[in-house]
Amino acid sequence: MTEEFEPQIIAFCCEYCSYAAADLAGSIRMSYPPNVKVVLVPCSGRVDPIYLLHALEKGADGVYVTGCEEGGCHFLTGNLKAKKRVAYIRKMLDEMGIEQDRVQMFNISASDAPEFARVAKLMTEKIRALGPNPIKGKGMARPQSDLSVLEGQP
Description:
globular
């Protein structure tokens, strides 16, 4: 008997908008898949691309970033930076032969709990269809840090 695949998904949520929507969804008892684990970030623009890759490497089957509506970022351009970073990681995954749909970006306003729940369901269904993360636990090539380059140098 084979077990049905249940994806593990990480959602990096902006404190001002999308995390508030997640909190509201919970407060009004909206249901969304328990597969989604929410990580609070001060701004979606603070999500470094390495966090997305690290989440995949450590076992997440999918990762998404949610930020304020475009034009409504509390830090002016944070969500636009996040959008560019997510696009960069998607392109990198595609070049590595990994489904780029494992990483997504969504804009959700603070009062839109139904949208937060819809996105969580959408990502769960999408990742379930893709199957398990092919790089889970395998590690990725990491660039040397600046200090490691200096080791052994005169």
